[in-house]
Amino acid sequence: MEVVDHLAEERSKAEFDVEAMKIVWAGSPQALEVSDRISKLVASDPVFRKDNRPMLSRKDLFKNTLRKAAYAWKRIIELRLSEEEAAKLRFFVDQTAFTDLHWGMFVPAIKGQGTEEQQQKWLPLAYKMQIIGCYAQTELGHGSNVQGLETTATFDPQADEFIIHSPTLTSSKWWPGGLGKVSTHAVVYARLITDGQDHGVHGFIVQLRSLEDHSPLPGVTVGDIGMKFGNGAYNSMDNGVLRFDHVRIPRDQMLMRVSQVTREGKYMQSNVPRQLVYGTMVYVRQTIVADASCALSRAVCIATRYSAVRRQFGSQNGGPETQVIDYKTQQSRLFPLLASAYAFRFVGEWLKWLYMDVTQKLQANDFSTLPEAHACTAGLKSLTTSATADGIEECRKLCGGHGYLCSSGLPELFAVYVPACTYEGDNIVLLLQVARFLMKTVSQLGSGMKPVGTTSYMGRAEHLMQCRCDIQRAEDWEKPRAVLEAFEARAVRMSVACAQNLSKFANSEEGFAELSADLVEVAAAHCQLIVVSKFIEKLQQVIPGKGIKQQLEMLCNVYALFLLHKHQGDFLSTGCITAKQASLANDQLRSLYSQVRPNAIALVDAFNYSDHYLGSILGCYDGNVYPKLYEAAWMDPLNESVVPDGYHEYIQPMLKQQLRGARL
Amino acid sequence: MEVVDHLAEERSKAEFDVEAMKIVWAGSPQALEVSDRISKLVASDPVFRKDNRPMLSRKDLFKNTLRKAAYAWKRIIELRLSEEEAAKLRFFVDQTAFTDLHWGMFVPAIKGQGTEEQQQKWLPLAYKMQIIGCYAQTELGHGSNVQGLETTATFDPQADEFIIHSPTLTSSKWWPGGLGKVSTHAVVYARLITDGQDHGVHGFIVQLRSLEDHSPLPGVTVGDIGMKFGNGAYNSMDNGVLRFDHVRIPRDQMLMRVSQVTREGKYMQSNVPRQLVYGTMVYVRQTIVADASCALSRAVCIATRYSAVRRQFGSQNGGPETQVIDYKTQQSRLFPLLASAYAFRFVGEWLKWLYMDVTQKLQANDFSTLPEAHACTAGLKSLTTSATADGIEECRKLCGGHGYLCSSGLPELFAVYVPACTYEGDNIVLLLQVARFLMKTVSQLGSGMKPVGTTSYMGRAEHLMQCRCDIQRAEDWEKPRAVLEAFEARAVRMSVACAQNLSKFANSEEGFAELSADLVEVAAAHCQLIVVSKFIEKLQQVIPGKGIKQQLEMLCNVYALFLLHKHQGDFLSTGCITAKQASLANDQLRSLYSQVRPNAIALVDAFNYSDHYLGSILGCYDGNVYPKLYEAAWMDPLNESVVPDGYHEYIQPMLKQQLRGARL
Ligand SMILES: Cc1cc2nc3c(=O)[nH]c(=O)nc-3n(C[C@H](O)[C@H](O)[C@H](O)COP(=O)(O)OP(=O)(O)OC[C@H]3O[C@@H](n4cnc5c(N)ncnc54)[C@H](O)[C@@H]3O)c2cc1C
Ligand SMILES: Cc1cc2nc3c(=O)[nH]c(=O)nc-3n(C[C@H](O)[C@H](O)[C@H](O)COP(=O)(O)OP(=O)(O)OC[C@H]3O[C@@H](n4cnc5c(N)ncnc54)[C@H](O)[C@@H]3O)c2cc1C
């Protein structure tokens, strides 16, 4: 195909330096260099092709995943890639696989919960992939309620072993990624029982399969749990089911950093604080927030480019029709998602910092900020994953009919992304945790306890409960202070109102249960404030590059005012703004969309995604959509023959009125 | 498996007569009888099994669809089913197929746009399926903008024929269901050109394939456009691509009811009014609204039953944990969807009536209500399909991790449903049409023109602009009058405000474009009012059966107050209600949820869906979820062998550190 950049004119409209924005998005020039280099490496290697993925059968898809994983590992070794580069490579291969869990959960679990000794024994094996591990927590009957897990690990002092057992059907491990077909080992969460006493859920390293021939060890029943949402998508992963029939493991395979069982069978706590586990959670959720900005930006990139290519209606005198990106309805759906992608990127960056901060404090035995950090990451995980899941589907709809084709890339992106709303904490359950923390914070306001971190605005509750928004013209909404105060006032007022309603209940747990739907809204308001405030903080940094600051200010404003418009009811009912001010915000939003419009394509180019990574005909860099769609269609297996398989048995007898006698 | 009704206790809690509610849902005792009988017929026939559908390759799935379609047709003939019964049978077979378009679009197009003669010639062939037809309108380059289609039909007076041609790549027909592999004929929309003059888009009956061997006729290039969203789902349909290279058809294959081309090549309008086409649109969209209530109720049935089976947290003294349906957050997400399913059912019923009413009026040459009926169906199509698509996904999330499995049925239901937001009019484009109609209605208010039908409340604009809501206690929100007036006031005030903003623009088209995002919100407010008001009207009918009326009143209230809460911002900013009243509505909503709770299972039982139709382990009637999930897992192709295909090539070399030399 002739290579013409159909979006060249769009690109020429940009009012900022795209290369500088690429650095902002990547985080640093060095990060951009790595990401660019590895992305090209993957894109240019035929083994990593993925354009036929949706057409593969489950078995072929799975085999292909094994191939890619092995090949990626081979390349990582051959090229002596650093840890960062290796992670990037897996990221750009873009096929969910057992390695995600091996590196993302198995290794961190051992690091976080294993003793020095255990780490020394197991980590080198894992680092070389001489063993492959997964994270086996969830069971058929229990996911959110980890404390309710039923698998047992009973200590047998005679043998100095634990007996791992699945006492009921619902105690079957169910969901762990990589478990079904690949993992040789698992960190298994089970109720620790010593001398008839139940000590609750603990982690154990359990070997599942022979390292010789991969057959499951005696007492281990293991398999895949079956197809999941979408073509391709998460079906490349072997989420598994696992049952134990009195499987014995040595005592030293209990992860003993925080608590131990001694040779005599005594259960003991070490002097390492339990809160350490929160550190791991903060880490994992921080990566989920970063992933959200990737997934959303990818969908937005596709929808934005296609919206500039697609023309529909509005042709005058036989001229070209209007690009759909010029419709205000399209802009009002698309641009807030573009802004959200940037917002999530920056809050993700900040979370990375938070994790380091928390880790340092933990090492210094300072646990003061941990509950706040924990609530904050839980809330941000919930907010960003929900918004991203919805946002991807909205991007798909923004592409009209063609978005429904697998070749648009959006169906698979959606299907593979949505479980992020469920795993690592169901999003509603997480918001309830945030709400609980907020109610506690409010209740302590009088007591002189100073709220820290992302709740510190609550320390100004008195002011925020009665302040008045002084916006008088649409442009006044450009002032970060005014925006921030409106969000703070809304969050505080909703929190306080809920706390007051709670106090009317004799039993506070009952009150919490009864008002939980409201509490979720309170938590959401708080989390939105965090994202807005971190975006505003980001703008206070020095960010070099022509026009960059202006673009980011514009996006920050779009994000905040879009939220304000969407949740107008909150702002109005708490009296934080007036109806007139809400309407001015809406006017301002409209004028911001016009400012985004000429920069839209460049703003998605700044993600620096290769066509390979995007995996979308609608989103291809050159915008040459129609010929590519047309050519791709003919690749479908159904087009292998002109007359379809089944014609003679089924169609012909129907047309010829010969069904009566037919055996079908 | 032992058959125990795990939901028996739930069923015993119902405060109404489920059998009577089944009749309400079905529409009449007779409709229930038919539906129940046909549903059982389908469920008991092994040919119609669909539990392995998500695992089939595209080709196998397609062949299976051909088989089911042929077999269904055979059964229809053998059992001499009536038209209603045949349609029900296809409905319960529940596999999207070319027959949907044949019966749902091809036949109605000929009926609506063909002359008497044409109908006599073509309909008998279509009725017997001696020909199979599709509806070929959309092209690669044009969907929403039908007037922009590029395919040409040029009249050749010499031969008395039309020459159908695809002049550009973007003029390729693209999307028509049933086109890719099956249809022998199509109604093709093309620009009519006589004597060099372009008369715009018209419909033509074009034969595509030989009736002898199914090969495409000369000049016809046809194929499938490739995989679409999801496993199974819409991939059973052969949405097609079609190009014409100067294909000739006789003149009498132009659909000539409304306009004709004479033997001499003269273009003429008949005395049949053009508006007739709107009649067909009203018909098709009415079926879409009915389908929305089916799809949503199905998802709600699954999520409700599973929420009663699933227990998580809250065990006291070793007793059972809390059913997740008892969590207020779960209720606040689920019950509004349950109420929506009922609301859409009733508005769908009313649309059926509207269609008949419009048809009668058309026959009497009365076009007065047509624009309003058209706007109303466009709006309701948009509202119900958007809400249903979102609702299905919410139901999936309500099922936690297990909802992500194909065996939950929800992923496929979502994937097969979502294009309803796009086909038959993109939902945003439709809302803009509604908005246009509303602005026109507002502008004529002063002129003495009386708004009709669903806009008649605008005739009371003066009152509604200044009325005050008199709610003082939560229970006051039970009064339908108060609810209705709040919705009417909101819709009028938003309309009028938008009209005023529009009037500030010198060029009204520019104004419309600039304010289009607001206009979409106005249209949505109007459509929500329609659904609420039709639900309230339904309650004014006599509806027999113990407790039925109460249940419906409760659901109506849930639906309305849920919307009010969700769109609080609208109600507050227009001053229709106060913040205090909004908060009372929320209190009332909470107490309504408690009233729904004991009836929830019975309310979904009333849909009378068989386990076959539901196609969901999580939603199975007896609630015996876990053993069924466990057994289904082992059916996955990946579990055919314990050691996966690819182990020797990829996993073993990795574990054994032998990748360096390996050829992968
Ligand atoms: C693709 C995918 C990959 C996964 N990978 C792994 C893995 O590698 N290892 C692993 O161990 N697990 C894994 N999981 C499991 C995952 O962690 C759980 O599914 C998740 O924790 C949610 O738990 P659940 O499924 O039990 O949901 P449930 O808790 O059953 O949720 C059902 C509904 O109940 C509601 N609910 C539950 N509790 C409450 C409450 N207290 N208050 C209000 N509402 C409530 C929820 O909001 C939800 O609407 C994976 C899951 C998926 C989908
Ligand atoms: C599963 C499926 C089955 C189908 N079956 C058939 C069939 O049998 N026969 C057939 O002929 N067609 C069929 N179609 C095609 C379908 O009718 C079109 O996809 C639909 O009309 C939408 O048009 P589009 O794809 O051109 O969207 P576009 O118009 O390109 O929409 C893209 C975006 O532009 C926006 N937009 C477009 N115009 C405006 C405007 N004026 N103002 C503001 N925003 C605008 C839309 O809101 C959307 O966000 C099918 C499609 C699907 C997905």
Automatic annotation (TrEMBL), chains A, B:
Record-annotated Acyl-CoA oxidase C-alpha1 domain positions: 278-439
A Pfam family: Acyl-CoA_ox_N
GO molecular function ontology, one term from the record: fatty acid binding
Binding site for FAD: T138, G177
Acyl-CoA oxidase/dehydrogenase middle domain segment(s): 134-235
GO biological process, one term: long-chain fatty acid metabolic process
Location(s) in or outside the cell: Peroxisome
Domain of life per record: Eukaryota
Residue ranges constituting the Acyl-coenzyme A oxidase N-terminal domain according to the UniProt record: 17-132
GO cellular component terms attached to this protein's record: peroxisome
Catalytic residues (UniProt): E424 (proton acceptor)
InterPro entries given in the database record: ACOX_C_alpha1 (IPR055060), Acyl-CoA_ox_N (IPR029320), Acyl-CoA_Oxase/DH_mid-dom (IPR006091), Acyl-CoA_Oxase/DH_mid-dom_sf (IPR046373), Acyl-CoA_oxidase (IPR012258), Acyl-CoA_oxidase_C (IPR002655), AcylCo_DH-like_C (IPR036250), AcylCoA_DH/ox_N_sf (IPR037069)
Cofactor: FAD
Family matches, as Gene3D superfamilies: Acyl-CoA dehydrogenase/oxidase, N-terminal domain, Butyryl-CoA Dehydrogenase, subunit A, domain 2, Butyryl-CoA Dehydrogenase, subunit A, domain 3
Family per similarity comment: Belongs to the acyl-CoA oxidase family.
UniProt name for this protein: Acyl-coenzyme A oxidase
